Amino acid sequence: MELERPLLPGWYRCKATLTGRHTDKVKLYLDLGTGFSESHAVPLRQKGEGDLFTASFYLSDETRAVRLDLTASGKSGGFEIQEFALRRRSAVEALLYIAKHALKMALVDPARLLRNFRNYVIYLRNPHFLYVTHPKGSDSEISYENWIAKYDYWPERDRADLQSEIALLGNKPLISVIMPVYNTPVRLLDAAIGSVTGQIYEKWELCIADDCSTDPATRERLQWWQNRDPRIKVAYRTQNGHICLASNSALELAEGPFVALLDHDDILREHALAEVALEIDRHPNAQIIYSDEDKLDKNDTRSDPNFKPDFSRELFRSQNYLNHLTVHRTANIRDVGGWRQGFEGSQDYDLNLRIYERVHAADIRHIPKILYHWRAVDGSTAASGAAKSYAFDAGKKALESHVARTGLPATVCAEAGSVFYRLKFSVPEPQPLVSVIIPTKDNVKLLRSCIQSILAKTTYENYEILIVDNRSEAQETFAFFEEIKEQPNIRLVAYDQAFNYSAINNYAVSRAHGSLLALVNNDIEVISPEWMTEMVSWAIQDDIGCVGAKLYYPNDTVQHAGVVLGIGGVANHVHLRLARGHPGYFGRAIVLNNYSAVTGACMMVKKRLFQQVGGLNETDLTVAFNDIDFCLRVLEAGFSNVWTPYAELYHLESASRGAEDNPEKIRRFRSEVKYMQERWATKLISDPYYSPNLSFGVPDFSYAE
Q1: Which fold has domain 434-685?
Q2: Cα–Cα distance between 121 and 116 in angstroms, integer?
Q3: pTM for this model (two decimals)
Q4: What's the average model confidence in pLDDT over 310-329?
Q5: Per-residue DSSP letters for 139-166?
Q6: Domain boundaries, the chain
């Protein structure tokens, strides 16, 4: 609806009373001049069991149109909007609103309030999030059970609608479900097979290989199922060959152009193959398709959902996160020789790696929906990733084979205390020169600590440090410059203009001698001596753009572990304030990842690439988001950005620049937000390295609310 007058910046309360057909999701979309998008959407919360939905949020810019969207729960009947009100709160009301939530948290979890007190100050002085439905910290406030009830009311369209959509497909490929079986308990076997026969998509075949089960009940039940449905084929092996040979026996039965993998005690969602068929229709060149998954305990209770990113090569080389449900083109499996003996336990990882080497990354498709329930029984890898050490060893062997086949200059490491892998790339000799660029203005204590930690701890040898002085005034700063000017690998560069972070770095790059650039804040201190070696090893790779480091606050909690777009309106760091050493969401805080962006507080990139994409934007992004914008332009140029946890440093978080706490800074910050949202509108709506099923309100991988 168009508004008679634009909504001015400030805190607002929205209220809608909806009667008749109940709704599960209600969102208020706001048009800031660039159209409606998820970046500017405010979810409304239902008050109790009634018809009232409300939201409180902060609006940072003028809004000229709003739209109310409702998603129905599937009950019959219509609905009516009885009341809709959007009112600006006074400053006192906004203060009371935030204080109420802080008080509530203090009563329930005072320790959490103390941990997140800084967030409340930010909300009061200068909201960094464009829309805040309620102040919250880094702890998830929605359980998986609640998420299922709210978002996983299957399906998003009802069964009849999905069947109609499938009926319209011009191409309905036969999908061959491969399932090796050995002494499976009848109850679990029935559940697995029944999950296939109950599929909405009917053009399937189930290819089972019984690996010479010693329990007669298994064979009897397979024969019963085979007689019940002609689409079920069973090969009865006369010799036990374990899972690789059994899978190959099942593959021999397959006649479809696509193969879906199913373990003998797991469950497919009833819409799983339908979603696969729709994805194939949308992307006819798809070679590998994978979905999200969760786990079932012995009581069939769902838990531990893995909401995955789209394809991330570096994450894939750290763990087989594709896992379940995985669908391959049958020809690809046959062309690489099927499953290989000697990789039992990680046979699918080995297969995925060999097929990945033959296909384009763009043809590896991700369906961000829970389509597979993984049975977490005692002793299974679902119950514990460390339950089968032979599986971990087989996975390492598979990755080592991949490295050998592709000629990567890397070794595969098994990190102590981790169930994941690390590719450790070598650095060529002679070492490429790295130009470490450190902008500064006074704050000599910070600068001294930064420089000394680099000189004392860095094991990489071939680097120069460019200290870019932006109008320092303190005598102690100049005294420090005198101290270090004789250092052969340190140069002082004067930048005698107003503070502009982008311009300062661009100016320094023009004077840098190195083929690699390390942009480093003056409030950084080195932790791991090999930080530069690690970052160089990735930055020199032909297809890698920006490389980011793992940064910690002084209290050893995470300050930077990669950047996700869209959180808070533009972008934010994920795993923020996570304890050092914590694995994070499915290990993503301790393994190599691809991310859309990494922070410029400690970033490495090739000098020629920096210049190729035009450096940092010194016109529109003088202070904030210039690193995010730069990373996105690097992605546009066809490169991948990498975050590595093996380059560890402390970051005191803008200690030398200060807070955004005066009117001029607030105006500048808002203009930079607006620029990012206009320049990167589509990117900010959907980050490929983050799941739409996760929260875009807080950067902690909590479930969407």
Answers
A1: Spore Coat Polysaccharide Biosynthesis Protein SpsA; Chain A (3.90.550)
A2: 9
A3: 0.79
A4: 96
A5: S--S-HHHHHHHH-SS-SS-HHHHHHHH
A6: 2-137, 159-387, 434-685
